[in-house]
Each structure stands twice: as C-alpha cells, then as structure tokens.
Amino acid sequence: MWFLLDYSGNQHIFHLDSHVLQSLATRMKNGEMVQPTNDNERECFQLIKDLDHIGGHVQGSLTNKKYMRNEIWSLVSYKGACSWYITLSPADKQHPISLYYADEQRVFKPFINDDRIRHLLESKNPVAGARFFHLMVQSFIQHVLGVPEGTIDGSFRKSHKPRYS
Would you tell me the crossing angle of helices 62-79 and 39-55 to the nearest 10 degrees? Predict the structure, then answer.
C-alpha cells in the first residue's frame, strides 16, 4: 500500500488506534465539527486525507465528484455563469424520427400510432432511443450552438467527432 506510507517509509495504517478512528467517525456522523487534538487523532486524519486523495482518481467516487464540482465552480468564476439551460429527453416516444428508428419499417411514413404501440416500439428497441438522443444532441450542437462538424476546441482540450457517427 504505497499510498499509506509516510515519508519515513513506515506504514502508518497499522499503527492507528481503531477506537480513536471509530470515535472520530461517530462524532463526524453526528454532525460534530471535529478537529484533531492529539497525535492519535492526527494520524487518523492523515489516513482520511490519504484515502480522500486516492478517491479523487476513482471515477464516480465522492472525492472525484467534489473535484468536478470545484472545476465547475472555477469555470463559472472564470467564464461566468450560464445564461440558459436546456434539458433534452432521451426517451421521446412522440417524435416521428424516434419512432422510425424504433420501428422495423424501411420506408419513413409520418404516421403516429397510439400511445401503447409507441411505448412498445421504444421499449423493445432501446438502441433506437440512444440513436435518436445522439441525433438530437448532434443537431442541437450544430444548429443551435453553431458548432460545425469535425474537430473543435473544447474547454479543456481538442475534441474529435466520434467514429461511430
């Protein structure tokens, strides 16, 4: 466990007092503001800090989410807040293109079936919903945001058009 080594090379996880660690966890769970007051508590806090640092590199972890929130707040601070928000729905059983993707017919006919048949079409073919959502997002980016197809400069790096499109 290389990440739990202190600078002298000793593994400090094995020298922790489990009763102190449990006491700290209970106090934190109860909402108490906990500050380390002795060496045992400082060692426990160092372990928590080490685990928190490692968790930042694990996708989906609480620390990773915290880092992403900090990045978002930094971008908002640097570039300004968004002026509008848009919500796209991946499951649109009303849209004729979505129904065309879900149906087995080769020829497009803009005939809208009843709600039960539309629901069955979409539920039997979830890939059609994903294809429709991809089409809507790509169309939104191209036509509403005015970003041409191909390579573009993103906020953090160059982005490339996916190969599966």
Answer: 70
